[in-house]
Amino acid sequence: MSGTSLDGVDGVIAAFAAAPEQPTVTTLASAYVPFSAGLRAELMALQSAGQDEIEREALVANTLAAHYAACVERLLADADLKPGQIRAIGVHGQTIRHRPELGFTRQANNPSLLAELTGIDVIADFRSRDVAAGGQGAPLVPAFHQAMFADPAQTRVVVNIGGIGNISVLHGQAAESEERDVIGFDTGPGNVLMDLWIKRHLDKDYDKDGTWAASGQPSAALLAHMRKEEYFAAAPPKSTGRDLFHAAWLDQQLSHTAPLKLSPADVQATLATLTATTIADAIVRHAPAAETVYICGGGAYNPYLMMQLAHALQSHGLRAHVQSTAALGIAPNHVEAVAFAWLALRFDQRLPGNLPLVTGARGARILGALYPA
Ligand SMILES: Nc1ncnc2c1ncn2[C@@H]1O[C@H](COP(=O)(O)OP(=O)(O)OP(=O)(O)O)[C@@H](O)[C@H]1O
Ligand SMILES: CC(=O)N[C@H]1[C@@H]2OC[C@@H](O2)[C@@H](O)[C@@H]1O[C@H](C)C(=O)O
């Protein structure tokens, strides 16, 4: 998995128990392969229109495949496994454009090259079929969260805070139909704006532990402006990405509060608060009775952001307990990679991977395409 943060590749070897409807998973190995500054810059540049995009996308896809293969090689060595012992690789690719309203979502990827480099079957392109069926093609992880993390006795919320934030509301058995009742959508920015702001001011890739944000004060005026963005009030199904939440969006927001002369650290604190309050709003609206909120994605490692989220929930009178998905047996930084292994398993069994009520697709669809070893 390589997500919207553009930081690198998260890989796992996941072993699923046989029963597909009630899967249990064991993570046999995990590996992280960071992107170089150059690759990251090229992936960032491909997020918007530019010269010679076709050739540049093809070349970057080859570079990505080499990174994915390096990740697989490391995983196999760690777990002491041979390629023949792996059923398939599920690989998401790198989202460079997400325009479901125009009928496409594009992940840069070269699954053929990955199959060639690893000698393992590769399953890729998980989003396109859902978009073809009229869906958003995202988020896809709510189906996995439901399969793995639902508890018949209580309502649980799972929040992924990667570049973009997304939420899954998993009702207990009291709800009429388990599948129908899963609610899931992208809440808006996760870390993406904080990452670009600290890059611009301190030339760092991210605000480690949220210490820079914690040195500032959130601005109520800037927060109020940003929260007027129409995406936040729109009803699901909905998904978003860097197509909307980019540097120009942030600069536009900041232009409204220029007279306040906010310090860069104050802006960073406000951006953390934007992420926290938009996630809290989603929980308040869709899961007011949630007992526990489980956090995954890199944002789980930012104590300032977690503090802002707990604060935002409390200010709405919600007493939900906030903890990481480690409490459910999967480390926050492994959840998405395990989810794409699970989606590959669903493809392998020719079972649907999407939840139509989440993505808005016309129906359940088998997601992905096979590139044989
Ligand atoms: N110790 C930390 N302190 C603060 N932030 C952190 C820390 N560790 C990770 N992060 C944040 O998490 C981000 C990476 O998160 P993650 O790997 O979940 O994103 P992704 O998978 O690329 O995104 P998406 O889920 O949108 O596809 C980093 O860019 C950084 O902003
Ligand atoms: C188009 C795209 O790549 N979307 C990502 C992104 O990152 C988080 C959020 O936006 C989510 O919609 C999705 O990823 C996860 C893995 C998903 O599909 O559930």
TrEMBL record:
GO terms for molecular function: kinase activity. Pathway: Cell wall biogenesis; peptidoglycan recycling; Amino-sugar metabolism; 1,6-anhydro-N-acetylmuramate degradation. Its EC number is 2.7.1.170. It comes from the Bacteria. Gene3D superfamilies: 3.30.420.40. Pfam families: AnmK (PF03702). Keywords: ATP-binding, Carbohydrate metabolism, Kinase, Nucleotide-binding, Transferase. ATP binds at residues 3-10. The keyword Flavoprotein does not apply. It catalyses: 1,6-anhydro-N-acetyl-beta-muramate + ATP + H2O = N-acetyl-D-muramate 6-phosphate + ADP + H(+). SUPFAM superfamilies: Actin-like ATPase domain. Belongs to the anhydro-N-acetylmuramic acid kinase family. This is Anhydro-N-acetylmuramic acid kinase.
